[in-house]
Amino acid sequence: MKFTHDVIVIGGGAAGLTAAGGCALFGLKVALIEGHKMGGECLNNGCVPSKALIGAAKRAAEAREATRFGVTLEPPQVSWSGVRQHIHDAIAGIEHHDSVETFEEMGCEVFSSRAQITGRQTVEVDGRRLTAPRIVIATGSEPLVPPIEGIDTVPYLTNENLFELPEQPGHLVIIGGGVIGMEMAQAFRRLGSEVTVIEPDKPMGRDDPESVAVVMDVMREEGVRFVTGKAAKITGGAGAVTVYTDGGEAIAGTHLLLAAGRKARVSGFGAEDIGIATGRNGFATDARRRTSVKGIYAIGDCRDGPRLTHVSGYEGSNVALEIVTGLPTKVDFRALPWCTYTEPEVAQIGLTEAEARAQHGDGVTIVKEEFAENERSIAEGYTKGHMKMVLKGKKVLGVSVVGKNAGELLLPFTQMITGKSNTFALGSAIISYPTRSEISKAAAFSAWEPTVFGSLPKKYAALVAKLRRTFA
């Protein structure tokens, strides 16, 4: 077969852009197909707009503290139209990185239309038949709409339309206490909305419970209400929605946000017609992100596995490298980081304490350092939170952090968990003072403290001191 391209990439989000751009920069002939907006969910209705909203909410929260550190601020006046403009400005300031023009300059042939896979090496788009020995599917995910009685009869929000709201909610009822639910709950509460979060299990269930408890206490203090239960029925209309839980409680609000998870986008573009296998929630792939059909990869949110923007970029890079070099590249999630951008932030890398104990039992030890002992935190008056390091011997298995800018502290542990560095190196590093990152050094040094100041080093020190006194 004479191919029109070396690789066809379907999807212009974080995964697809990384794969397409990587292959193009190596000189391959790449077709990049995006049927909606370049940049995908992260840029248009995920990471970027949500963090912009959180930034506006943080400013309002600081103003509500009135007098602090001897400085008095005026109470905040929130303009929802101004908040929306800030969100759109943030998107506009970033979208050129993901634009059609940028990827055409890299060498991609970009199609702004929907793709249809017609064979394991063929895709139809805009009336053209494209062919390539490799196809990469990066079609992303969409909000999961849970099967709740009455859900189809009431207006509801998801992350796809939340940031286009013409008015600020008076009382936002959120179904789901995961990352999106918790971030938006705190942000809207800080902007002045009443907020209720309905979650059948524990909020942020994949994170360390001690870390989650800290942020939940803060959110309760700020006025967020948490209801434990499953949404069983929904009634109402625009501006007046009531959610009934399986525990018999009725929560009435002005707006309803569904934040109950994500659903992989696997149908509607021919994948099922050529027999690409799916798993629990997405395309089934191996560690190299190969699907059941030879020559076709699935990366990012559309495949079974973790759904994070940085994971999508990582998989895009891996697949690009494999296509370019012909050498296998497997994913390695031993040092997978994630962060929930509440205040305080909750960040995790590697195994949580519970996961480590399930795998290694009594071989696990825990080192915990409090931000209340960190001098930068004390100076800035924000000492909530801690760092918990999970160890097997001196090897780091995972780190859980809750605190201001917690996500910024994960980087060195990526190196340690993968064996490219170690706790001794971090514990003896010179770190700028005063910074919150000193807590990482403190935790790493704590792992070695019993050894460094143990009986043998003490005996050696005593011998040196005796010899010095004797022969000085």
Would you write up a description of this structure?
- The protein has 472 residues and is an alpha/beta fold.
- It has 14 helices and 24 strands.
- Strands 5-2-1-9-19 form a five-stranded parallel sheet. A five-stranded antiparallel sheet has the order 20-21-24-23-22, with helices on both faces.
- α1 packs parallel to α8, α3 crosses α4 and α3 packs parallel to α6.
- The chain is globular, with a radius of gyration of 25 Å.
- The model has no long low-confidence stretch (mean pLDDT 94).
Write a brief structural summary.
It is built from 14 helices and 24 strands.
Compile the SSE list and pairings.
Layout: E1 7-10, H1 14-25, E2 30-33, H2 40-45, H3 47-64, E3 67-68, E4 71-72, H4 80-94, H5 100-106, E5 108-111, E6 116-119, E7 122-125, E8 128-131, E9 134-137, E10 141-143, E11 171-175, H6 179-191, E12 194-199, H7 209-222, E13 225-228, E14 231-237, E15 240-245, E16 250-253, E17 255-258, E18 262-264, E19 296-298, H8 309-325, E20 337-340, E21 345-350, H9 353-360, E22 364-370, H10 375-380, E23 386-392, E24 395-403, H11 411-417, H12 423-427, H13 438-452, H14 455-471
Parallel strand pairs: 1-2, 1-9, 2-5, 9-19, 11-12, 11-17, 12-13
Antiparallel strand pairs: 3-4, 6-7, 7-8, 10-18, 14-15, 15-16, 20-21, 21-24, 22-23, 23-24
